[in-house]
Amino acid sequence: MPHDLLIIGGGPAGLTAALYGARGGLDTVVLEMGAPGGQAGQTDRIENYPGFPEGINGMELAMKFAEQAQRFGARIEMTTVQRVELNGEIKKAFTGSGEFTARAIIIASGAHPRPLGVPGEEEFRGRGVSYCATCDGAFFRDKKVAVVGGGDSAVEEALFLTRFASQVTIIHRRDALRATKVLQERARDNPKISFHWNTVVTRIMGREKVSSLELKDVKSGTTREEAFDGIFIFIGLEPNTGFLKGALTLDSQGYIVTRENLATSIPGVFAAGDVRSKDFRQVSTAVGDGAVAAMAAERYLAGL
């Protein structure tokens, strides 16, 4: 017997969708490959989510999301979705623990930061290596930090970090930023921001936490070591849509294309959170997506 609603992904978007779906009386199942919470669950402190004036640990917030969804009857299955079949009235998800079917499906599988892929990056993740200035910037008050990237996100985050850090160095592999002119001007006018042009990070070093970076000049090929207290990496995101190959309309970067009600190109299939094509990716926007997608799915099911 198929479920009413199947949700792929147990981050803020997926868990909010589960809450709304289950509370609306739908037989709701969430498929999550790891611990609930997604990227938010890996954040040490979230200080910009409404309702928690003192901030909250990311995993703690994620568990609250999960508890609330489960309170209304949503079920969370820990498994990895390998592929899907979305055409037809009954949608199918094939996982390592079997096949799940439902009359409607919400894809909330999220996205992951594109890594630098250098030694030390994984070792110091959460101990000086960050992919979110809004999440972690306050932990680097009066510290020297590096920002890797040259687009709008990198420059915006560098400007944000000047609220806390004593010095912010933008490291870019080219000799000019790709960010919009206005952002470039703001960065150049900020006395806390400096630039390392034609430079890439080749190694992240430290003991208990990040203490220095190995930098390479891409023109001369020379390397040097420079002291930094942290490194923020903004070279793009990669959507978790590998299991959707050929099953759904994606944009040129692999994100799911949605309409205003978060419906996709296939009836009964919706998308929410970081996995869909949109401008802003925060916990609060993911939660909003989850609510909209669930209500749209409920309306779709009522019309069947």
UniProtKB/TrEMBL annotation:
Gene3D superfamilies: FAD/NAD(P)-binding domain. It holds the Pfam family Pyr_redox_2. GO terms for cellular component: cytoplasm. It comes from the Bacteria. Keywords: Disulfide bond, FAD, Flavoprotein, NADP, Oxidoreductase, Redox-active center. The keyword Flavoprotein applies. GO terms for molecular function: thioredoxin-disulfide reductase (NADPH) activity. Residues 4-290 form the FAD/NAD(P)-binding domain. InterPro entries: FAD/NAD-bd_sf (IPR036188), FAD/NAD-binding_dom (IPR023753), Ferredoxin-NADP_redctase_2 (IPR050097), Pyr_nucl-diS_OxRdtase_2_AS (IPR008255), Thioredox_Rdtase (IPR005982). It catalyses: [thioredoxin]-dithiol + NADP(+) = [thioredoxin]-disulfide + NADPH + H(+). Its EC number is 1.8.1.9. Its cofactor is FAD. Binds 1 FAD per subunit. One of its GO terms (biological process) is removal of superoxide radicals. Homodimer. Belongs to the class-II pyridine nucleotide-disulfide oxidoreductase family. This is Thioredoxin reductase. The gene is trxB_2.
